[in-house]
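Quick one, tokens below. Sequence please?
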């Protein structure tokens, strides 16, 4: 039994106990085991954190970008050195496997490193002027105080990909992580603080969902970045927009994988498995819909069903386990409810479908589930994001229909296409309305130097990462620059 860790908040450079009600994170594989506990931040703590971020913003904005970057680079090294310990804590608190947990910590380090080096890249641009003796310069300045609201499913990587660019471009931050994963939030804040971040530049508040509203309603807020559920995101985005505060919100996905008859089927089945079941399907980029060509459907689905049934599900910290639990009881029961509804609406169960009995029943486990849907029949499981290890399947008679089915969603985050035909791949790039398209790889995954985000209703506001992050976390000043002596006019 591992010791329970005390939770604290970071306000103005000091770690403090909260002043609100008790909060605890528990191990979703063994809910009786508390991972971390403490007191939530109270209402006045939001004011104090916003005041600290406001007081720090001028000094941090004036700190040379190179120096700001050095802090991120040192934090990256700290995370790398502690990746196995933090990966274990992540697996215990969130439920993804140890390998995924450790991988995520290293990914956070990679993101910090990318933005840590960005201070040494171009900071603006210069244009020629149509007027003699003048140059036009476009400079970038930080927005100011950024509210960061992050989800449970990537407890360290998503915060890193919001906080690292916010800080790198000179902003200060008030961060509210999902209250199910406060320990990993503390770990990231600790790494940044140990790396030398000045006081007030990053403030961490562990609190209830309503604290997101307090942050967005706060008059000192200059920008908001959010990842999480569609309902919460739209609410926060509309409040921010109503106050004229720039907002970036990354929300739902109902991502399709298309497997055509000319695909490398071994590759496709392996990648669809990863897309659907890694992190127990709890990714906005997870593959939750599969569209498979008639000619190969019987063989492909037999193999997929077999592999899903064979996945080793259990305590994610046990070596050899492929899939852990979902985050909490509310998630477990709503996902199981979604499966039950699909079955009652005529879905054919190719794997999973029923709740676990025995040892796994005590944790928040959902069996990896593959549901084949009747042709031409609209089903909730086809349209609604369940955020769990559930893959719904449709067969298709033509490539055109496959592309249309892929677009049959209000969301447009990511998609995967399996084919060896370059012509088909090229037309899919034009036809599939998504922010991220994978050709012959799974639908999840993101690199720090390229834009991340969706088309259609998957997100609101600018995308994340790469140059997109710079666009969001800075505003430009266009400077018409002439000498003062009139000589060259
Ligand atoms: C990934 O696909 O590796 O919340 C990252 C999410 C996304 C991140 C996905 N914002 O699942």
């Amino acid at each position: 039994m591992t010791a329970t860790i005390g939770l604290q908040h970071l306000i103005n450079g000091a770690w403090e106990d909260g002043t609100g009600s008790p909060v605890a994170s528990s191990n979703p594989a063994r809910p009786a085991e508390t991972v971390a506990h403490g007191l939530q931040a109270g209402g006045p703590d939001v004011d104090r954190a916003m005041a600290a971020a406001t007081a720090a913003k001028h000094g941090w904005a004036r700190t040379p970008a190179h120096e700001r970057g050095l802090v991120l680079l040192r934090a990256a090294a700290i995370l790398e050195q502690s990746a196995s310990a933090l990966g274990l804590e992540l697996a215990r608190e969130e439920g993804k496997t140890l390998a995924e947990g450790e991988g995520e910590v290293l990914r956070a380090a990679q993101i910090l490193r990318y933005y840590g080096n960005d201070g040494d890249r171009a900071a603006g641009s210069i244009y020629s002027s149509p007027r003699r003796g003048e140059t036009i310069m476009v400079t970038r300045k930080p927005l100011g105080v950024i509210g960061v609201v992050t989800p449970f499913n990537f407890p360290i990587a998503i915060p890193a990909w919001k906080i690292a660019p916010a800080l790198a471009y000179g902003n200060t931050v008030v961060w509210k992580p999902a209250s199910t994963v406060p320990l990993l939030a503390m770990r990231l804040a600790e790494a940044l603080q140990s790396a030398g971040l000045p006081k007030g530049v990053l403030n961490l508040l562990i609190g209830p969902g309503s604290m997101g509203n307090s942050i967005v309603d706060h008059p000192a807020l200059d920008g908001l970045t959010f990842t999480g559920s569609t309902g919460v995101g739209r609410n926060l985005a509309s409040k921010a927009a109503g106050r004229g505060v720039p907002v970036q919100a990354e929300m739902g996905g109902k991502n399709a994988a298309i497997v055509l008859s000319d695909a490398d089927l071994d590759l496709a089945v392996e990648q669809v498995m990863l897309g659907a079941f890694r992190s127990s399907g709890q990714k906005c980029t997870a593959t939750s819909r599969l569209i498979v060509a008639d000619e190969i459907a019987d063989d492909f689905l037999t193999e997929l069903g077999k592999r899903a049934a064979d996945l080793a599900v259990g305590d994610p910290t046990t070596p050899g386990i492929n899939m852990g639990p979902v985050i909490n009881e509310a998630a477990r029961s709503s996902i199981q409810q979604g499966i039950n509804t699909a079955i009652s609406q005529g879905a054919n169960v190719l794997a999973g479908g029923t709740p676990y009995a025995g040892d796994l029943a005590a944790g928040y486990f959902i069996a990896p589930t593959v549901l084949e849907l009747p042709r031409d029949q609209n089903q909730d499981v086809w349209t609604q994001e369940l955020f769990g290890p559930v893959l719904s399947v449709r067969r298709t008679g033509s490539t055109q229909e496959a592309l249309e089915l892929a677009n049959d969603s209000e969301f447009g985050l990511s998609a995967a296409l399996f084919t060896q035909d370059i012509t088909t791949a090229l037309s899919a790039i034009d036809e599939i309305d998504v922010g991220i398209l994978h050709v012959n790889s799974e639908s999840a995954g993101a690199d720090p130097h390229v834009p991340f985000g969706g088309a259609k209703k998957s997100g609101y506001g600018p995308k994340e990462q790469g140059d997109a992050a710079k666009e969001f976390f800075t505003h430009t000043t266009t400077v018409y620059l002439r000498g003062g002596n009139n000589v060259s006019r």
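Residues 75 and 195 are 5 Å apart (CA to CA). The mean pLDDT is 96.
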